[in-house]
Design goal:
alpha/beta; D-Maltodextrin-Binding Protein, domain 2; 8-stranded mixed β-sheet; globular; Bug_dom1; BUG; Tripartite tricarboxylate transporter substrate binding protein; signal
Length: about 325
C-alpha cells in the first residue's frame, strides 16, 4: 500500500461479488470429513522468494493442526497469474489452495481484465502476514539512501536500470512509480521472480529493486546488495544502517504487501473455516512468530470476513497506483 494515497469508494457490486465468494458455498456432506488426504498449497512464484518462504513456514504447523500434510507446490509464471488461475479453476473441495498475495491477486487482476480469473473467483480464507518492503541497490552505486539514488538517476538519464520479479508485479510497479514521479529514465529488467534478480544486482548489471524484506534481508546482511530505504516506522535492528523512507520524506514509496490463503470460489464454508483455524493456531506458536519477526513479516491471522475487506480496499487502491505509475509503458 502507499500510505498517503486516498482510496476511492468501492462499488457496491464489487463488495457484493466478494461477499458471494465467501457465502455462496453450500454445505457439502464431505465437509465434515475433510481433510482425508494431503492438501496442496500452490505458490504461484518460484522457490526462494518471500511468498515461498511464508508458505513453507506455515505449511508444517498448519498441516499438523489440520491433521494432514499441507504440501507446498510452486507453479510460477506470468507474475503469479498462472498458478493463481490453476487454483481458481480447481474443484472447490478444499484440496487445492492458493498462497495469494497483493501481487498475484489484487495487482494482476487490476492490470489484466482478460485474465482467466477475477478477484471474485478466489474466496479469501485467512490473512497470514503483512510483508514490508525495502529498496535495494547494487553495492557499486554511490548512493547511501533512496533519495540520493533518485538524485543520481536524474543526473544520468538512461544510465541505471531497475529489476523486478516480472512485468507488472509489485516491484515493477514500484519502479514505474518512482520513475514517473521523479522524471527518471531507467530501463526495466524483468526476471522470473525476484530471487534471480539478486545475482545481477550484486554485480551491477541492474541497479535498483524494491522487494519484500523477507527476500531481501539475507542479501543485505551479506553485503551483496545495499539497502536504501525500508517501509517501516523506524529503523530495523536487522539492518540498522538502512534509513526508513519516512526519514527521507518518501513515505509515498512505502509499498507494503500481504500474503494469505485463498480457495476456489464455492469451497464449502466448513472447509475454509478449518483452514483459517489451522493457520491461526500455527501463528499462535511462539517459534513461528519468532521466525516471522526475524524476517520482518508481521503475523496477522484474520479470517475470511476481515481478509475480504482488506482485499477489497487494496483492489481499489492499487487501481489508482497502476494509473499513476503509467503501468504498461515499459
Amino acid at each position: 500500500m502507499i500510505r498517503q494515497l486516498p482510496l476511492l469508494r468501492a462499488t457496491t457490486a464489487g463488495l457484493l461479488s466478494l461477499a458471494c465468494a465467501l457465502t455462496h458455498a453450500a454445505h457439502s456432506p464431505e465437509s465434515s470429513d475433510w481433510p482425508s488426504r494431503p492438501v496442496t498449497l500452490v505458490v504461484p512464484f518460484p522457490p526462494g522468494g518471500g511468498n515461498d518462504a511464508v508458505a513453507r513456514q506455515i505449511a508444517g504447523p498448519a498441516g499438523q493442526a489440520l491433521g494432514q500434510l499441507l504440501v507446498v507446490e510452486n507453479r510460477p509464471g506470468a507474475g503469479g497469474t498462472i498458478g493463481s488461475a490453476t487454483v481458481a479453476r480447481a474443484h472447490p473441495d478444499g484440496y487445492t489452495l492458493l498462497l495469494c498475495s497483493t501481487s498475484s491477486l489484487v495487482v494482476a487482476t487490476a492490470l489484466y481484465p482478460s485474465l482467466p480469473y477475477r478477484v471474485e473467483d478466489l474466496a479469501p480464507v485467512v490473512h497470514i502476514a503483512d510483508t514490508p518492503t525495502v529498496w535495494v541497490a547494487d553495492p557499486g552505486v554511490s548512493a547511501t539512501n533512496l533519495q540520493e539514488f533518485i538524485a543520481a538517476a536524474k543526473q544520468a538519464p538512461g544510465k541505471y536500470g531497475y529489476a523486478s520479479g516480472g512485468t507488472n508485479t509489485m516491484p515493477h510497479l514500484a519502479g514505474r512509480t518512482i520513475s514517473a514521479r521523479n522524471g527518471l529514465n531507467m530501463l526495466h529488467v524483468p526476471y522470473r521472480g525476484s530471487t534471480p534478480a539478486y545475482a545481477d544486482l550484486a554485480t551491477g548489471r541492474v541497479n535498483l529493486m524494491m522487494d519484500s524484506i523477507i527476500s531481501a534481508l539475507p542479501f543485505i546482511e551479506s553485503g551483496r546488495v545495499k539497502g536504501l530505504g525500508v517501509s517501516a516506522d523506524q529503523r530495523l535492528p536487522q539492518m540498522p544502517s538502512v534509513p526508513t523512507l519516512a526519514e527521507q520524506g518518501l513515505d509515498d514509496l512505502g509499498f507494503v504487501g500481504w500474503v494469505g490463503i485463498c480457495a476456489p470460489r464455492d469451497t464449502p464454508h466448513e472447509i475454509t473455516a478449518k483452514v483459517a483455524r489451522s493457520v491461526q493456531q500455527a501463528l499462535a506458536q511462539p517459534s513461528l512468530r519468532e521466525t516471522f519477526a526475524r524476517q520482518i513479516a508481521k503475523p496477522v491471522g484474520n479470517g475470511p470476513d476481515a481478509f475480504a475487506q482488506k482485499i477489497q480496499r487494496d483492489t481499489v487502491a492499487w487501481r489508482q497506483i497502476i494509473a499513476a505509475s503509467q503501468a504498461g509503458q515499459d
